[in-house]
Design a protein that fits this description.
Layout: H1 11-19, E1 23-26, H2 30-41, E2 46-49, H3 53-60, H4 71-80, E3 84-86, H5 90-95, E4 99-102, H6 117-131, E5 137-141, H7 149-162, E6 170-174, H8 184-189, E7 194-198, H9 201-210, E8 218-221, H10 223-251, H11 259-267, H12 288-301, H13 307-331, E9 338-342, H14 357-367, E10 371-375, H15 380-387, E11 392-393, H16 397-401, E12 406-409, H17 414-417, H18 421-427, E13 432-435, H19 442-446, E14 450-453, H20 465-473, E15 479-484, E16 487-489, E17 492-495, E18 498-499, H21 506-518, H22 524-531, H23 538-551, E19 563-568, H24 575-579, H25 582-598
Helix pairs in contact: 2-4, 6-7, 10-12, 10-13, 13-14
This protein binds nicotinamide-adenine-dinucleotide.
Length: about 600
């Protein structure tokens, strides 16, 4: 390749080019492609190199090998202007640049430790190319690597392969990357800070020169500290999300409690800050899991445990179970149910599914025997590589929820945010939604369909559909409809016969009472089927059940005035009631509103 091939055109541009070192980037994945196009857009000459020929070909023809908002346009423009080129050998890349950025992957070994195979191979080929170079060259590690890697691994390999000496014939730097997939271009253009890890002045000056066009704070540290900063950064962010997820799980147990309000309440404290306090189905992505595992592994090798990071990982492992449990609470058993997953990418605005929480959720649903359909605006082709023919693939959100029994929101794409309760009601066989990313208004959704959400406490909103739900899920069994007066009293549930005891649940108390009053033997499963659904209000749920019993002409009286109970067989319950319950709901809501206004007229309470 011609040494002068990237010579600038035009006088002012020429000046910039003369000042700016030419950059080669090794590894054209998420980080490498963004940096290649990003630096090129700042009029720095960039050469991209990757061992994946497909990526090289795409980039050479002006197409971004990865999806990131704004990246396609940037790549196209920079390739068109000859500022971004690709080469097919490592040697060409090194010989035609002044600075090399290593942006290859750093995956995990099976024990969680960092796998340096790509780093060592890249270091070797860079070293071999440097052997043929008679000018100083800067090697900068941008990949996330465990403290000590650059000095103990990269430096040694480059020295051995080149026969040259670090800090004399070539410089060494670490420049950890903090971009977020989904907003990577924006993060490149306006970073919060730039961390430069160096041991020698010349490398420092060169890296500062490259970043001279960025106005954010620049922190210069030694190499190992820069390496560690990246891990600590990821660990802290992951801990913050796991923390609020842990609190979300607690909120689900507290009547009238919503984690979003809790997060807002603490987020306004400047010492805490509002970012990364969105509770949800769990965090995923290529970096956090591998980096947290690598850090704990590294600590263990240094005779230390990192209990907060262990707990961060543990909380995250639980979240997919919480999602599946919420689905189960809404529609009962999941086997042979059509459950749909909206959102597969680990976050919106990316097609990346590496370590996405959707993978765990889909696999759990499949294990439960559900028939799973998935949809994602960008990640379907990646999903096909993972799920193959174990799931159905939909071409739109509406297509996905069509005829479904339960929809799980797993990635907060804007496309899903615009879905209305009516869309779910119109399309789904059973309108039941588990909001794993808190994108829907609980008020709007709970009044129209079966709705559950991460971190949404019990009792907050009345969900009349839950009563119908109990019948649907129990269609192979006999169903117990119970009317019982239960009221909250001083924070306890009060039954006419006494309070629910501290060590029993409302369900257990009711089972006990119903058995005592009616002499019926209730299998715990049956009462559970009824009560496992009222995420919001067991009381109102029972009330609604009773109302349905009345509608069906099944009202019964026991010896005790305050209790009515009857077993129905599934065939006694017209199927249409499962879907066409609006009239019942309206009537109930009306009488409830009346009751709250006047203290009278709550017929079914
Ligand atoms: N993805 C992110 O959001 C992100 C953010 C910050 C830091 N990081 C870190 O940046 C590094 C790269 O991450 P990524 O997500 O871009 O990875 P990636 O897997 O998307 O891309 C890595 C690329 O390196 C290429 N490669 C492997 N060996 C090579 C070699 N010998 N020569 C040239 N190319 C080679 C691969 O073909 C691949 O295209 C990792 O250490 C990661 O932890 C990633």
């Amino acid at each position: 390749m011609d040494q002068d091939m990237l010579t600038a055109k035009g006088s002012s541009e020429e000046e910039t080019h003369l000042k700016m070192p030419r950059i080669s980037i090794f590894g054209l994945g998420y980080v490498g492609t963004v940096y290649a196009a990003g630096f090129a857009s700042k009029k720095i000459e960039v050469i991209g190199f990757d061992i994946d020929e497909k990526k090289l070909k795409l980039l050479a023809s002006g197409i971004s090998p990865i999806y990131e908002p704004g990246l396609s346009e940037l790549v196209k423009d920079c390739v068109h202007k000859d500022l971004l080129k690709t080469v097919s050998t490592a040697e060409d890349a090194v010989l035609n640049s002044d600075v090399t950025f290593i942006t290859v992957g750093t995956p995990s070994n099976s024990d969680g430790s960092i796998d340096l195979k790509y780093i060592t191979e890249t270091s070797r080929v860079i070293g071999e190319a440097l052997k043929k170079k008679d000018r100083w060259h800067l090697v900068t590690v941008k990949s996330t690597v465990i403290p000590g890697t650059t000095e103990k691994v990269v430096k040694k390999i480059v020295e051995a392969a080149s026969g040259k000496t670090a800090y004399k014939h070539f410089g060494l730097g670490v420049n950890p990357e903090f971009l977020r997939e989904g907003s990577a271009v924006e993060d490149f253009m306006t970073p919060d800070r730039i961390v430069i890890g160096v041991s020698d002045e010349k490398s420092k000056v060169e890296l500062e020169r490259i970043y001279s066009g960025f106005s954010c704070p620049k922190l210069v540290t030694n190499i190992r500290t820069a390496e560690l900063i990246k891990y600590v950064n990821n660990a802290f962010l992951a801990a913050k999300v796991s923390f609020i997820n842990m609190i979300a799980n607690l909120c689900q147990k507290i009547p009238n409690c919503d984690v979003t309000a809790v997060a807002e309440g603490i987020g306004l404290d400047k010492r805490i800050g509002k970012h990364f306090l969105r509770a949800g189905a769990g965090w995923g992505g290529s970096c956090w899991l591998k980096d947290l595992n690598a850090l704990t592994n590294f600590a263990r090798k240094n005779g230390l445990t990192l209990p907060l990071i262990d707990a961060t990982l543990q909380v995250n492992d639980m979240q997919p179970f919480v999602m599946v449990e919420l689905a189960r609470q809404l529609i009962g058993k999941l086997s042979n149910r059509r459950v749909v997953v909206l959102g597969l990418a680990f976050k919106p605005n990316t097609d990346d599914m590496r370590e996405a929480i959707s993978i765990k959720i889909v696999n759990m649903l499949l294990n439960e025997g559900a028939e799973v359909t998935v949809y994602d605006p960008a990640a379907i082709s990646n999903a096909k590589e993972i799920f193959r023919d174990t799931v159905n693939y939909a071409s739109s959100a509406n297509d996905c929820i069509h005829n479904a029994d339960c929809a799980l929101i797993v990635t907060e794409w804007d496309e899903f945010k615009s879905l209305k309760p009516e869309d779910f009601v119109r399309h789904m066989r059973i309108p039941a939604v588990v909001d794993g990313r808190r994108i829907f208004s609980p008020q709007a959704f709970s009044s129209k369909l079966r709705f559950a959400a991460i971190g949404l406490g019990a009792n907050e909103y009345f969900n009349p559909a839950l009563a119908v739900n109990a019948m649907i899920v129990s269609d192979s069994e006999k169903i117990l409809l119970v009317r019982r007066t239960i009221e909250p009293f001083n924070g306890l549930w009060s039954l006419p016969g006494g309070f629910v005891e501290h060590d029993e649940t409302v369900e257990e108390a009711l089972t006990r009472e119903v058995e005592e009053e009616t002499g019926l033997k209730i299998r715990p499963k049956q009462i559970f089927d009824v009560f496992s659904h009222p995420l919001r209000s067991p009381v109102k749920h029972v009330v609604t059940m009773c109302y349905l019993a009345d509608v069906l002409g099944g009202s019964l009286k026991s010896s005790n005035e305050s209790l009515e109970a009857r077993f129905f067989s599934a065939s006694e319950i017209p199927a249409r009631l499962a879907f066409d319950h609006h009239e019942i709901v309206e009537k109930y809501m009306k009488s409830q509103r009346e009751y709250w206004k006047t203290g009278q007229g709550l017929v079914y309470g």
